[in-house]
Structure formats: structure tokens, C-alpha cells
Design brief:
430 residues, Adenylosuccinate Synthetase, Chain A, domain 1, Adenylosuccinate Synthetase, subunit A, domain 2, four-stranded mixed sheet, 17 strands, globular
């Protein structure tokens, strides 16, 4: 029996992971975040009420699920406090079910300042970050000058580490970007106060996961962003600052690969992207505008409009291979209702050469031409359909083509934003 599953995005993020994690978390004992930070935005719609989560795992709305933040997550304590208070104001019990690894790096105010300053300095070459300080925090982690959750409970040690870090970052802010230096005393006081808010939630997440696994409990690992934004395997440099692919589960939660039983890859029935970077199948016509309007394509974290295009089977197939996807969950199938002809990018052409894999050279993405295969659309509504056999024939054909082109079976289909609007062909925990 499946005990541990991983839910990952297989495109450029915004695939609808939050809804699916919320749905599946009703059947698990723990939900775990293992990478990224509050640059993630997971949207849940329950009885027409929308909840957007950034740090707290999406299982928090299911009372039986323990929610854990692993060491691979960079944590803004201010954002976590705000998110916790918002949920508690709605009657959600957060603090009795939330655990935070002491090894989580802390996003400090100077990280956010550096993020904004760098993007401004890049001008037209901006990466398109969320400006939340994610990248600079990971940089400090790798440079071994980061502040971790555990440091917040040793004032003298925190002061020493913070002084070293701020000496470096204030120099950069002042001399390189011409920005005002930050006050050491203020940053220290704020860090101590915010740390005190969560002192009772700090726990050995890796040890807890081992205990749960040993006891036969069911665990869900919740990915943030998408595979094509992976720092190593994505469309570099237009990527996020963490590994968004399957390996990050092990390093970011402290579990071995044998602890993973099933990988669910979330993909939209079409493709979207927020911010800058290559997008071979992007549409600039009325069809693309229609997808954006019907799909309400705005970033959950930034509110930025998402770029829309046809499904990219080349990139999706690589994501399936990279992550060892056991099955796909196809989201927003209903957004394609009424589209006369649906296209799928099945290959790239670069300088006359046909490619069935994405280019490894970042610059080559700009020169790609896409080979498409066309499929007949459907006029019937798929909104809210819960049985595969009730889908229009052409919708079934399209899903079958996705399986064949992308290298993994379709096990779930989302047919609307509500928790109940799903088709479950094969339950990941089945």
C-alpha cells in the first residue's frame, strides 16, 4: 500500500498543486513542505471561499493532517506570522498541528532589499523574481553565513552571526546599489521577537517523518513552484532559487529515496508562465487571451498576469522523466471547453534540426520553433464532471494523447476550482 506520495508541479508553476494537496490531505497524516519559501502561492477554493497559502502546507484546512516545514524551506517569519494569524482568525487550528525544522534558513529584511535592488539594476534583463528575498537567503545558506531558525534562541550567537552577515550585506547595499544601510539593532530585535512567536513549534522534522513512516502513517510531500523552474534542470537563468524536482524531497525534508512510494505530477491542460523567461508555445492571439480570461490566470503570490500557451509535451515529458512521475493530474481541463482546435507542441526545431528534448543551452530557447499536433476540441462543458466516462469524447482523446506524448498515465483530472470538482481514475494512495 502507498504510504508516502510527492505532489510536484511539472511546468513553470501555478499548475494547481494547492487544490490537489488539499484534496489528498484528507487521506494522510502529515503534509510536508520541503523547498522554496513564501514565493509559493497555493490557492484553495472550498465552498466558494478562496484561501491562498504561501508557507504553511496546504493540508492545514484538513483537521487530521499534521503540517511540517522541512529544512529546505527558507522562512520569512513575518510572512509566517501573518499567514498563521489570518488562518486563526477564521477558526483554523494552526499552532497545534504545525512543526518547523530548526535548520530552516531565515529570510531577513536585507534579503528582500537585495532582491529588489538587483532586479531594478538588471532593468530589461530582470529575472522576474517575486522580490521576497528567496534567492539572497539561499545564497547566504550556501555561503554559510545564513541565519537559521535555531539561531533565534541564542541571543549572543545570533548577534555574532547577524553582525557578520549585515556587515557584508550593508556594504553591498550602500556601495554597490546606493541604498540605505539597515539598522543592526532593529533587525536583531525584530528577529528575536518573531522567533519567540514560534519557539514552541520548532521540532526535528526529519526525525518526526522517520517516526511517522515507521508507524505506517501516510505522508504527503508538497512541492512549490514547478519543475521547469528548478535551479539545475529548469530554463536557467529564468528559474527559482531552489530545486523544485524530486531530489529536493530527500535533501529538504531529511528522508531517503526509499521513503517515496508515488510521484504525482501536476500539469495544466495547457501551459502558463509568470514573469520572464522562454515559453516556446506561448500564444499572443485571442485564443491565448481567452485561456487567460477563462482560467483566471493571475499569479497567486504576485497577482501578475500569467502568460498562456498550448501544452508543451517536450518540456512536460522531460519533467516526467526527471521526477520519475508515477501519474499525472491534469488541471483546468474545463478552461479548454469551447476551443475548436487544440494544439500540442510535440517537438522543437532548432537551426533546422528536430529536437525531442529541451535544449541544454539557455540561449537556444530563444531560437526554438515548435512542431505542433492538432486535436479537435469540444463544445460540451466539462466543468464539475466527476466521472471519466462522462467527459466528451474529444476530451478523452486529448487526455489519451497527453499520456502517449508525455510518458506517464493520467490518474486524476481537475474539472474546476472547487475541492469536489475532480475525476479520480487511480487514487495516488490506492
Amino acid at each position: 500500500m502507498t504510504k508516502s506520495i510527492v505532489v510536484l508541479g511539472t511546468q513553470w508553476g501555478d499548475e494547481g498543486k494547492g487544490k490537489i494537496v488539499d484534496l489528498l490531505s484528507r487521506d494522510v497524516d502529515a503534509v510536508v513542505r520541503f523547498q522554496g519559501g513564501h514565493n509559493a502561492g497555493h490557492t484553495l477554493v472550498i465552498d466558494d471561499h478562496k484561501t491562498v497559502l504561501h508557507l504553511i502546507p496546504s493540508g492545514i484546512l484538513n483537521e487530521g493532517a499534521q503540517c511540517l516545514i522541512g529544512n529546505g524551506v527558507v522562512v520569512s517569519l513575518e510572512a509566517l506570522k501573518t499567514e498563521t494569524e489570518n488562518l486563526e482568525s477564521r477558526g483554523v487550528d494552526v499552532r497545534s498541528r504545525l512543526g518547523i525544522s530548526p535548520a530552516c534558513p531565515v529570510i531577513m529584511p536585507y534579503h528582500e532589499s537585495l532582491d529588489h535592488a538587483r532586479e531594478k539594476a538588471r532593468g530589461v534583463n530582470a529575472i522576474g523574481t517575486t522580490g521576497r528575498g528567496i534567492g539572497p537567503a539561499y545564497e547566504d545558506k550556501v555561503s554559510r553565513r545564513g541565519i537559521r531558525i535555531s539561531d533565534l534562541y541564542n541571543t549572543s550567537l545570533l548577534s555574532e552571526k547577524l553582525e557578520e552577515a549585515m556587515d557584508y550585506h550593508n556594504f553591498v547595499l550602500d556601495n554597490y546599489f546606493g541604498m540605505q544601510r539597515m539598522s543592526f539593532d532593529r533587525v536583531l530585535d525584530d528577529a528575536l521577537q518573531l522567533g519567540a512567536c514560534f519557539s514552541d513549534l520548532v521540532m526535528d522534522v526529519s526525525g518526526e517523518l522517520h517516526r511517522l513512516r515507521t508507524e505506517g502513517k501516510r505522508i504527503l510531500y508538497e512541492g512549490a513552484q514547478g519543475s521547469l523552474l528548478d535551479i539545475d534542470h529548469g530554463t536557467y537563468p529564468f528559474v527559482t532559487s531552489s530545486n523544485t524536482t524530486i531530489g529536493a524531497v530527500c535533501t529538504g525534508a531529511g528522508v531517503g529515496p526509499s521513503a517515496i512510494d508515488y510521484v504525482l505530477g501536476i500539469t495544466k491542460a495547457y501551459t502558463t508562465r509568470v514573469g520572464s523567461g522562454p515559453f516556446p508555445t506561448e500564444l499572443f492571439d485571442d485564443v491565448g487571451a481567452g485561456l487567460a480570461e477563462r482560467g483566471a490566470e493571475f499569479g497567486a503570490t504576485t497577482g501578475r498576469p500569467r502568460r498562456c500557451g498550448w501544452l508543451d509535451a517536450v518540456a512536460l515529458r522531460r519533467a516526467a522523466h526527471t521526477n520519475g512521475v508515477s501519474g499525472f493530474c491534469v488541471t483546468k481541463l474545463d478552461v479548454l471547453d469551447g476551443v475548436d482546435t487544440i494544439k500540442v507542441g510535440i517537438a522543437y526545431r532548432l537551426n533546422g534540426e528536430l529536437l525531442d528534448i529541451p535544449p541544454q543551452n539557455a540561449e537556444a530557447w530563444n531560437d526554438l520553433e515548435v512542431e505542433y499536433e492538432s486535436f479537435p476540441g469540444w463544445q460540451e462543458s466539462t466543468r464539475g464532471v466527476t466521472r471519466f466516462e462522462d467527459l466528451p469524447a474529444n476530451a478523452k482523446t486529448y487526455l489519451g494523447a497527453m499520456e502517449a506524448l508525455c510518458g506517464a498515465p493520467v490518474h486524476m483530472v481537475s474539472t474546476g476550482p472547487e475541492r469536489k470538482e475532480n475525476i479520480v481514475i487511480r487514487h495516488p494512495m490506492g
